[in-house]
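Many introductory courses stop at the sequence. We go one step further.
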Amino acid sequence: ALQDAGITALAIDLRGHGGSGGAIGALPDMIQDVRGAVQWLSARPGVRPDALALAGASLGANLALLAAVDEPLARAIAVVSPSLDYRGVRVGPEVVRRLSGRALWMAASTEDPLALRTLKDLAVEGALV
């Protein structure tokens, strides 16, 4: 559906997940993997590097937020079910503040109390304006 809408998308298989090798314990390295994917995609023919976005859910949400902080090509970020601390991959108000000026969409289900609390904590801390 994305391709039919003229959108180029790249889904990555994180280390130690799905068919990818590597250790799940290498969580900080996964942030670099996400940044590498952005760089790779931005160099593809027909891709507008000024219109790239990151999206992720659960662990991928935290990784997308953290990767976007130091990746200016990520102009928009969409996350579902982030967590303040996903097995040591921490996000907080300071991360969201560093994304200032970029489009940010975050969502969590009322049936996911940890992610919902994360969104509420970020809003209470004044990170979301």
